[in-house]
């Protein structure tokens, strides 16, 4: 029975760690999307420079 409790404890800890990773990954994805959109908006707002030859 002790091994079953240890197994259950390990699974619960693993699930908790997985959820933290999932949450962090989602946060990172949202930040990247926001920054990507910001960069697109900045690059489209600048007039394109013509090269001087």
Helix content: over 70%
What is the structural class? mainly alpha
Quaternary class? single chain
Unreliable residue runs: none
Measure the end-to-end span.
81 Å
Count the DSSP helices: 1
Mean pLDDT: 91
Gyration radius from CA atoms, angstroms: 24 Å
State the major sheet. Answer: none
Number of strands: 0
In percent terms, what proportion of residues is strand? under 5%
Question: Would you give an account of this structure?
Answer:
It is rod-shaped, with a radius of gyration of 24 Å. The chain has one helix and no strands. The protein is an all-alpha fold and 53 residues long.
Q: Can you summarize this structure?
A:
With 53 residues, this protein is an all-alpha fold.
Main features:
mainly alpha; SSNA1_fam; rod-shaped; 53 residues
Furnish the topology, listing elements before pairings.
Elements: H1 2-45
């Amino acid at each position: 029975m002790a091994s079953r409790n240890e197994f259950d404890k390990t699974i619960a800890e693993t699930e908790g760690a997985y959820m933290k990773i999932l949450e962090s990954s989602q946060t990172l994805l949202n930040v990247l999307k926001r920054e990507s959109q910001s960069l697109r908006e900045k690059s489209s707002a600048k007039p394109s420079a013509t090269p001087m030859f």
